[in-house]
Amino acid sequence: MEELEELRNEAYENARIYKDKVKRLHDSRICHKKLCPGMKVLLFNSRLKLFPGKLKSRWSGPFLLTEVFEHGAVELFNENTKESFRVNGHRVKPYYEHQSSTMVVESHTLHDPLY
After folding, report:
1. Range list of β-strands (E), the chain
2. pLDDT tens for residues 56-82?
3. H or E stretch including 8?
């Protein structure tokens, strides 16, 4: 009986060690978002189902982030409709606007190989 109890305790300990390792690995890969008022963000549309718009993007926006509340809620402002609404902060990601930069284009002439 004591051996059985010892095996059971060892199994519990091994499971706890495994869960701790997996949690540490998971937490190390989380990218924390820095959301501050005034920045533009995209909103994830979780209600878009698979078949009606398979190729449609599930991200809409950009919206202007007006306020960040405690516990992760954010208030967004839609500049087109002039409406503001609150959503969970996990549903937004930063929007990086297209920055116009002078692009250098190089052209190369290809010659036929000599046989």
Report:
1. 40-44, 59-68, 73-78, 83-88, 92-94
2. 778 887 899 999 988 889 999 998 889
3. helix 2-28
